[in-house]
Amino acid sequence: MQTSNELAERRRDKRFKVMDGGVALVTPPGPHSTVVGDIIDISMNGLSFRYLADKALPPEAKELTIASARDKFYLRGLPIRAVSDFEIAKIPFGSLSPRRHGLEFGDLTDEQAARLESFIASHAAAEA
Fold first, then answer.
1. Distance CA 55, CA 95 (A)
2. What is the CATH number that goes with domain 4-126?
3. Whose CA is closest to 96, among 30, 45, 35?
4. Taking the domains of the chain in order of start, what are their residue ranges?
5. DSSP states along 59-85
């Protein structure tokens, strides 16, 4: 996995800050293991999200779901590859700490790409 500086240098697409209500759901292998987090930023190439955990997500997770309750947006089955995972604060919540997980999208179908573009247009703003 890479550091946040190395990740920023590799980005091919413009990154957008998610402004309201987008969540990421990643299901690593194993029963009852879905991890839910708030999306921090997103591009057509990948996203990062904030979550609470006692350790980093396993890199074996291969699919992502993006959802927003505000407008009932739901996009599942996005192919992913983990590129970073690190603790973002030393403020524990019991045994859990806030972490940031960065993902790169795999090959998207035309429908997935169109829906992802729609999500970015309605939930995000360009980062400065």
1. 10
2. 2.40.10.220
3. 35
4. 4-126
5. TT--EEEEEETTTTEEEEEEEEEEEEE
